What does this fold into?
Amino acid sequence: MAEETIFSKIIRKEIPSDILYQDELVTAFRDISPRAPTHVVIIPNKVIPTVNDIEEDDEVTLGRLFTVARKLAKQEGIAEDGYRLIMNCNSHGGQEVYHIHMHLLGGKPLGPLLMG
Ligand code: 5GP
It folds into this structure.
């Protein structure tokens, strides 16, 4: 069994967070330290530590991350101007929380993909 992180507590509502969407497969909530006017984190409810740990059985769940991203981008009013979806993997990718997540960022021009 993969080790739980703080995101499992968010899914179970054991710690407060601004949850925008939740169903049987995924949960989406506002990032505690937003890097853009809209910064939402979309995660599978199942603990998958990194993209390296994804299995074929996870394909439906991971597809749900995208349909929820699309819905939330519309809800946040950023769909037409555009936005960025990011998944970081391990240390070189800048991953801090080892429960895979998709960042939905938008609300301003985000500039080039890689900074710094
Ligand atoms: P990573 O760097 O792993 O791709 O992104 C992890 C993200 O989770 C960061 O943007 C960080 O601000 C966010 N985060 C970490 N802990 C919490 C928390 O307890 N609540 C919320 N809402 N976001 C968190």
About this structure: Strands lie at 19-22, 26-30, 38-44, 83-86, 102-106.
